[in-house]
């Protein structure tokens, strides 16, 4: 074979590297272009979103239901600031849901929502909107502060699963070490070091944080990997990221030193934990200023002891901790049970308690309740105890206890004069369990037409035919009342591309119901994120199925206008059907 000339070799090499560069650059070039201009960043809308927003359910059902806005989270992270869990297309959203909104508006509504115990319906909407990947607002709030609003809510409400998912899908983001420290402390507080150490797997070399490195060292010791622990410990000391207290505890746990400093430090949960496991006959007196996680750890590790049952200062501190959800509330009732009262005091408890201080009064009436056998007497004492807790601002300790005790009473044994009191003080189940749907073809919004939403796989022609047939039946009844829920169904079907019978003048009917102009303006201005938060605030502590029909109507009406079909469908599924 004749050898190729030098020029041919160079030509082949150049072609090879040229093609190789094209192949290497092609997957990320899209994202580089999107980063190159702030103007492009503001107006970016991916084709998948545009299709979702422009097409009806009619058209979308013909396509693959699993169409995703972004195929891999790594691509999203290439654009700075797109921190979240959900791709926008999962909820018919786009990357600009916050772009037109003033940051002060967002801060204010987060502040209000933080004061509400959200229902499962409101919480689902809230987490979906705040955990969707999208650009941060442009005015009056920084990217870091906007993300921190979300993280603070997750931590405050202890959404551990969402936090872990967020960490898994976002390699680097502001305040990452704060999130990891929360997960670590949360598991130490439960005295569950096996799970706590698993959280250390999220710690990577990008995070330079002494606290987390210290915990990683302890976890290696905990898992009997002392050689690895020693190596990282030495590096930590060389970097001046350690301290005398920690060095003393780790040297003892590694077996290097037999003597241990008995100092107890509560400036962090890790230091406190190390103090508790290395101090013989460990004893610690918590107070009102003690960190919540330390309270929880003391409770979980059974380290809270009340040696002197007459120590009112300590008992008051424990009550405050229980009120703040840092201590198991049952611990308080255990303490009340240990109080000693003579038989005469117990017999006359309902008179004597008024002369006692708060702790003594609560303990006395609680013991009298335990001794009572008569149902009426039990209820009276529970109500009295409620007033005593309320007087000292401790209702949070008692509300659930009272509800549980009232539930234990047979309904048939409750005197008529107390039925209303009992009903008012029983806490309803927090979780709404959807029962089996009962279709009623005499009422439009309860008819089999809604299977289009509840079942999802009903052929479109079948739904159209059902709509026409059922309308023929109900229009024969001159007494039929076309309700707000009927209007919700009809408007949604029309939005999805179904043909509505001409006799249904739904646009005329809609004039009877007011749609808030402020919400309409948010939809018009494409402030979709803020609009969704307004809905969260409106729903608040109530489940969607318990909202009045007019409120459900204006929410679905605006969702239809905004083409937020998936959010709207969830509302319909909860609010319209009758269930067994």
In short:
The protein is mainly α. Helix content is 58%, strand content 1%.
Q: In angstroms, what is the radius of gyration?
A: 31 Å
Structural class call reads: mainly alpha
Intertermini distance: 85 Å
Which stretches are poorly predicted, pLDDT < 50 over at least 5 residues? 1-78
Q: Can you list the strand order of the major beta sheet? A: 1-2
| Total number of helices | 32
Shape: flat
- Name the average pLDDT: 83
- Helix residue percentage: 55-70%
% residues in beta strands: under 5%
Q: Please summarize the sheet with the most strands.
A: 2 strands, antiparallel
Beta strand count: 2
If you had to describe this structure to a student in words, what would you say it looks like?
Strands 1-2 form a two-stranded antiparallel sheet. Among the domains are: 6-36, no CATH class; 37-140 and 432-580, no CATH class; 329-425, no CATH class. By secondary structure, it is mainly α. It has helices at 6-35, 38-43, 47-54, 57-60, 73-77, 103-113, 120-130, 143-156, 160-169, 176-189, 193-199, 210-222, 226-238, 244-253, 269-278, 292-300, 312-323, 330-338, 343-347, 349-352, 358-371, 375-391, 395-407, 419-425, 451-454, 460-474, 484-495, 506-510, 517-524, 528-539, 549-561, 565-575, and strands at residues 437-438, 578-579. It contains 32 helices and two strands.
Write the layout of secondary structure elements.
Blueprint: H1 6-35, H2 38-43, H3 47-54, H4 57-60, H5 73-77, H6 103-113, H7 120-130, H8 143-156, H9 160-169, H10 176-189, H11 193-199, H12 210-222, H13 226-238, H14 244-253, H15 269-278, H16 292-300, H17 312-323, H18 330-338, H19 343-347, H20 349-352, H21 358-371, H22 375-391, H23 395-407, H24 419-425, E1 437-438, H25 451-454, H26 460-474, H27 484-495, H28 506-510, H29 517-524, H30 528-539, H31 549-561, H32 565-575, E2 578-579
Antiparallel strand pairs: 1-2
């Amino acid at each position: 074979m004749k050898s190729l000339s030098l020029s041919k070799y160079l030509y082949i090499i150049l072609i090879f590297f040229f093609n190789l560069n094209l192949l290497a650059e092609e997957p990320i070039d899209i994202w580089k272009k999107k980063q190159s201009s702030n103007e492009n960043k503001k107006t970016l809308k991916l084709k998948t979103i545009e299709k979702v927003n422009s097409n009806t359910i009619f058209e979308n059902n013909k396509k693959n239901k699993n169409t995703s806005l972004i195929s891999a989270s790594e691509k999203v992270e290439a654009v700075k600031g797109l921190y979240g869990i959900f791709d926008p297309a999962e909820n018919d959203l786009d990357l600009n849901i916050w772009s037109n909104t003033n940051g002060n508006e967002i801060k204010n509504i987060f502040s209000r929502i933080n004061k509400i115990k959200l229902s499962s319906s409101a919480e689902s909407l809230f987490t979906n909107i705040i955990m969707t990947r999208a650009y941060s607002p442009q005015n009056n709030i920084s990217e870091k502060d906007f993300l921190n609003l979300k993280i603070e809510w997750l931590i405050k409400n202890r959404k551990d699963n969402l936090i872990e998912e967020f960490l898994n899908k976002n390699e680097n983001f502001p305040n990452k070490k704060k999130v990891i420290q929360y997960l670590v402390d949360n598991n130490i507080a439960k005295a569950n070091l096996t799970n706590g150490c698993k959280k250390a797997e999220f710690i990577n070399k990008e995070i330079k944080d002494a606290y987390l490195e210290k915990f990683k060292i302890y976890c290696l010791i905990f898992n009997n990997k002392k050689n690895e622990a020693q190596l990282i410990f030495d590096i930590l000391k060389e970097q001046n990221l350690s301290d005398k207290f920690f060095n003393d505890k780790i040297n003892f746990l590694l077996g290097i030193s037999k003597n241990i400093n008995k100092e107890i430090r509560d400036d962090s949960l890790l230091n406190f934990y190390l103090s508790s496991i290395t101090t013989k006959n460990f004893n610690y007196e918590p107070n009102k200023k003690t960190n919540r996680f330390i309270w929880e750890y003391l409770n979980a590790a059974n380290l809270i002891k009340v040696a002197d049952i007459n120590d009112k200062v300590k008992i008051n501190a424990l009550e405050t901790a229980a009120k703040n959800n840092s201590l198991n509330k049952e611990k308080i009732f255990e303490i009340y049970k240990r109080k000693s009262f003579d038989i005469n005091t117990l017999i006359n408890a309902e008179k004597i308690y008024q002369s006692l201080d708060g702790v003594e009064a609560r303990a006395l009436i609680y013991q009298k309740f335990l001794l009572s056998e008569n149902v009426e007497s039990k209820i009276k004492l529970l109500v009295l105890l409620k007033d005593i807790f309320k007087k000292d601002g401790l209702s949070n300790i008692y509300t659930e206890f009272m509800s549980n005790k009232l539930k234990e009473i047979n309904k048939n044994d409750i005197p008529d004069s107390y039925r209303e009191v009992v009903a008012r003080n029983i806490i309803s189940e927090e979780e709404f369990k959807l029962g089996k749907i009962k279709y009623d073809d005499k009422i439009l919004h309860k008819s089999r037409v809604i299977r289009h939403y509840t079942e999802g796989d009903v052929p479109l022609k079948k739904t159209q035919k059902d709509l026409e047939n059922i309308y023929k039946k109900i229009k024969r009844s001159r007494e039929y009342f076309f309700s707000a829920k009927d209007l919700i169904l009809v408007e949604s079907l029309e939005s999805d591309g179904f043909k509505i019978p001409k006799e249904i003048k739904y646009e005329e009917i809609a004039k009877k119901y007011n749609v808030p102009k402020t919400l309409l303006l948010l939809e018009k201005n494409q402030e979709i994120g803020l609009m969704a938060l307004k809905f969260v605030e409106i729903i608040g502590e109530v489940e969607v199925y318990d909202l009045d029909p007019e409120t459900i109507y204006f929410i679905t009406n605006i969702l239809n206008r905004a083409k937020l079909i998936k959010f709207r469908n969830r509302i319909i599924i909860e609010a319209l059907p009758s269930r067994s």
